[in-house]
Amino acid sequence: MNKNKKDVKVETKKGSIDEWPEPIVRVQSLAESNLSSLPDRYIKPASQRPTTTEDAPASTNIPIIDLEGLFSEEGSSDDVIMARISEACREWGFFQVVNHGVRPELMDAARESWREFFHLPVHAKESYSNSPRTYEGYGSRLGVEKGAILDWSDYYYLHLLPPPLKDFNKWPSFPPNIREVIDEYGKELVKLSGRIMRVLSSNLGLKEDKFQDAFGGENIGACLRVNYYPKCPRPELALGLSPHSDPGGMTILLPDDQVFGLQVRKDDTWITVKPHPHAFIVNIGDQIQILSNSTYKSVEHRVIVNSEKERVSLAFFYNPKSDIPIQPLQELVSNHNPPLYPPMTFDQYRLFIRTQGPRGKSHVESHVSPR
User: Fold this and answer.
1) pTM for this structure?
2) Is 114 among the domain residues?
3) Which of 77, 139, 141, 284 has the highest local Cβ count within 10 Å?
4) What residues form DSSP beta bridges with 141?
5) Please, are residues 127 and 317 in contact by the beta-carbon 8 Å criterion?
């Protein structure tokens, strides 16, 4: 008997990826109910709580790199800037960029448009509710494991590229200009990502378009996840986003520069990122770690919450074409430096986080080829 494809549920060991395992509770609703305690579903195990892990000194920050001159014809400081990016990719996996070419007014408009959207009553957003199959739309959890401990955040996820997946009807219609702002913002970040990709290739002694070609040339994927972290009554027990490395290629984050929250793991300590005004935070994803045969590092990060202020951030993901096998580039492997990872498409790879949720660096590490 033939079944229509959309009627067939895809099952994993952790549950169906077509539907959430339990009724969705919006974190915004919990925060607005003036809780004095935290629901058990959001209390992290003692070893994972932000107060029980070692933090770096408050003055420590990820590198801040000024890109001015990098993309101009007569940029005399190119070598210095490229060397700083190279070091950041190898040692940190994260860095901030200023003078990146995206207008500050557009950055502010994007963040504040989304803040307005999340300030809508919960019932006004439910028509955009998502499912774990594509995650597109309004969501409140990652992973489909029944009974999992959840993160203290709501989010909105949407596709920008490839064009067939870009569906304005799945984008919010309020505030009135949000779709135009998202569209312009997405196009600017696609351009910025392409420029950074050329630097990443060149810094490994490759042709500057090598990484881009490995991602599918112009046929790449791009999506946006907007994170809303409401006030939390017991922030020392919870996380806004559990530790993970990003499964895709490269992430460009527009943080809330008024409220700190992002923490990056380095040398077994957690560093709270202090955002520079109108800077983007760039982080290397697992796919670039794989392409570079682990020369560049995707790094574990998490988000803490607080009881005084909400926080809004925009994570733009620049990903390979979903059906292209990604593996270490041939130019970067040898008998003395064999490939660390077998070929795998991004479609196959990202199924892990979509079903199991954020799990540190366990996914990329589990794919290291046996020596």
Assistant:
1) 0.91
2) yes
3) 284
4) none
5) no
Domain assignment present for 19: no
Burial (CB < 10 A; 0-12, 13-18, 19+), residue 4, is exposed
- Alpha-carbon separation of residue 104 from 109, 280, 283, 313, 351 (angstroms): 9, 11, 20, 15, 35
**The CATH number of the domain where 242 resides is what?**
2.60.120.330
Determine the straight-line distance between the first and last CA of the chain, rounded to whole angstroms: 45
Asked whether residue 105 is domain-assigned, the answer is yes
Who's near 187: CB < 8 A, 6+ residues apart?
A: none
Q: Tokens for 356? A: 């199991």
Distance CA 60, CA 270 (A): 10
Q: How far apart are CA 228 and CA 240, in angstroms?
A: 9
Range of the domain at 243: 27-31+42-367
Radius of gyration of the chain (CA): 20
**Residue 6 maps to a domain:** no
Residues 345 and 289: their CA atoms lie apart, in Å, by 14
Q: What distance in Å separates the CA atoms of residue 118 and residue 113, rounded to the nearest whole number?
A: 9
Task: Please report, as a single letter, which amino acid is at residue 69.
Answer: G
Number of domains into which the chain is organized: 1
Residue with tokens 């203290």: 152
Per-residue pLDDT of the chain (371 residues; tens, 9 = 90+): 444 434 444 454 455 678 999 999 999 999 999 898 999 999 999 999 997 556 667 778 999 999 998 876 554 458 899 999 999 999 999 999 999 999 999 999 999 999 999 999 999 999 999 999 889 999 999 888 899 999 999 999 999 999 999 999 999 999 999 999 999 999 999 999 999 999 999 999 999 999 999 999 999 999 999 999 999 999 999 999 999 999 999 999 999 989 999 999 998 899 999 999 999 999 999 999 999 999 999 999 999 999 999 999 999 999 999 999 999 999 999 999 999 999 999 998 887 766 666 666 656 666 676 55
CA neighbor of 280 nearest in space, from 93, 107, 156: 107
Give the pair of three-digit tokens for residue 344: 């795998």
CB 103 within 8 A of CB 278: no
Distance CA 229, CA 209 (A): 37
